[in-house]
């Protein structure tokens, strides 16, 4: 393509973004986003990194408005189920729950701890608790807003929770659960050791997990739904998915990624089924999960994601909001399990989505609605993604995902200059295995 043609395409792209760009003016214009969401029953709120405070603040503000004005009652996050369930108990005021949100975040000890054990989540959790207390009584038919982790890294924690529940309820499935847990004992809660044994040496606990899953499903069908039944059900789903994830991870390829994203979708659907006809869910995850994989190069590698799977489900009306920044700060580690650092995010690469949004807004924060764009914005363009492992000096070699933005999201929020999260003090973190 000639230089003149490239310049003409770039000019057309920027011209359309200029026309679409809506300044946020603080957060005053967010109601326009709420109106655009319309009658969706699932709203996906992304982030370009796991360590940026502004993404959390805008997601919290959007979530508050969706809860207060549109009756949304489920927050599903890219976090472990057992740790998030402790916070869920707090925001719902359940018997025996913690006395503060910061205490209720105390189980988020797995690296990267800052993703959920941070001040912005603490403030949001306190708002959720106050909202639930003010808007729901014992006789109310409206369910309280819940906070749930829909990820699947908590293999051992979920097994322990299942055994505790079955002991408490004197369930006949207890012995099978103990046999299943004993199968994992030789690996001393080491995911990598289990993955190598299961994926390369065919020494897996798959049969034990499948049998327990069948028994637990039969139990669920025989008992009326309750919050603790839901807790046990999803912990069992976590155990099954996590076992499959670690078994497939060591082989490489897209299978382990797909296991994880399919699990997150299934977890969300189980929660929504528990809430019944009133269920309306907000999902907080990285853009890599909530932006439709079919609009990126992920599809060429045989990968699916949460955004794609939910959009393909005819039972739900989905609205996906991507988030990004031109420059600023982020919390991340230099390598897996390294101490967290506040890093500088350099300006977006010339010709990237971040660069165009910066130029369209002339350095202002803003948003664009992408549902009704012309063909101009349906071309592939680089879109930045920062994981929990990050090196700003190397980002141009692997941090830009080719994306058709108008197909990947329904709307996008651009924060021109961002600030890093403020983590809460937590116990010594334990490293896990994920990039986004």
TrEMBL record:
List, in alphabetical order, the GO biological process terms annotated in this UniProt record. response to antibiotic
- Pfam families assigned: Erythro_esteras
Q: Which CDD domains match?
A: Ere-like (cd14728)
- Name the InterPro entries on file: Emycin_Estase, Hydrolase/PRTase-associated, UCP036794_erythomycin
PANTHER family the record matches: ESTERASE, PUTATIVE (AFU_ORTHOLOGUE AFUA_1G05850)-RELATED
What name does the UniProt record give this protein?
Erythromycin esterase family protein
**Native source species:** Paenibacillus xylanilyticus
């Amino acid at each position: 393509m000639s230089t003149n043609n490239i310049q003409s395409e770039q000019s057309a792209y920027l011209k359309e973004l200029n026309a679409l760009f809506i300044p946020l003016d603080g957060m005053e214009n967010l109601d326009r986003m709420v109106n655009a969401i319309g009658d969706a029953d699932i709203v996906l709120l992304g982030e370009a990194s796991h360590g940026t405070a502004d993404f959390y603040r805008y997601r919290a503000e959007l979530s508050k408005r969706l809860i207060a004005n549109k009756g949304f009652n489920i927050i599903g996050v890219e976090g472990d189920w057992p740790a998030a369930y402790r916070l869920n108990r707090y925001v719902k005021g359940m018997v025996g729950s913690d006395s503060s949100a910061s205490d209720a975040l105390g189980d988020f000890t797995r690296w990267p701890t800052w993703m959920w054990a941070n001040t912005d989540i603490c403030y949001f959790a306190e708002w959720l608790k106050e909202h639930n207390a003010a808007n729901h009584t014992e006789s109310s038919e409206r369910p309280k807003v819940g906070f749930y982790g829909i990820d699947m890294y908590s293999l051992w924690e979920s097994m322990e929770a299942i055994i505790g529940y079955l002991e408490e309820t004197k369930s006949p499935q207890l012995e099978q659960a103990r046999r299943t847990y004993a199968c994992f004992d030789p690996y001393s809660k080491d995911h990598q050791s289990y993955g190598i044994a299961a994926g390369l040496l065919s020494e897996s606990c798959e049969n034990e997990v499948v049998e327990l899953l069948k028994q637990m499903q039969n139990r669920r069908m025989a008992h009326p739904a309750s919050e603790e039944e839901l807790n046990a059900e999803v912990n069992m789903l976590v155990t099954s998915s996590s076992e499959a994830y670690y078994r497939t991870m060591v082989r490489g390829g897209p299978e382990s990624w797909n296991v994880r994203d399919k699990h997150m979708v299934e977890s969300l659907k189980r929660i929504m089924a528990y809430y019944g006809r009133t269920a309306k869910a907000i999902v907080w995850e990285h853009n890599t999960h909530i932006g439709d994989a079919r609009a990126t190069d992920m599809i060429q590698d045989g990968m699916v994601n949460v955004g794609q799977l939910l959009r393909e489900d005819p039972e739900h009306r989905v609205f996906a909001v991507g988030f990004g920044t031109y420059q600023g700060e982020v919390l991340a580690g230099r390598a897996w399990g390294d101490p967290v650092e506040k890093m500088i995010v350099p300006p977006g690469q010339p010709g990237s989505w971040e660069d165009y949004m910066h130029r369209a807004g002339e350095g202002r924060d803003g948003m664009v609605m992408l549902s009704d764009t012309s063909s101009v914005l349906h071309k592939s363009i680089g879109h930045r993604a920062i994981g929990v492992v990050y090196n700003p000096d190397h980002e141009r070699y692997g941090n830009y995902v080719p994306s058709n933005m108008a197909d990947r999201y329904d709307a996008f929020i651009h924060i021109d200059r961002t600030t890093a999260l403020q983590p809460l003090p937590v116990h010594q973190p334990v490293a896990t295995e994920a990039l986004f």
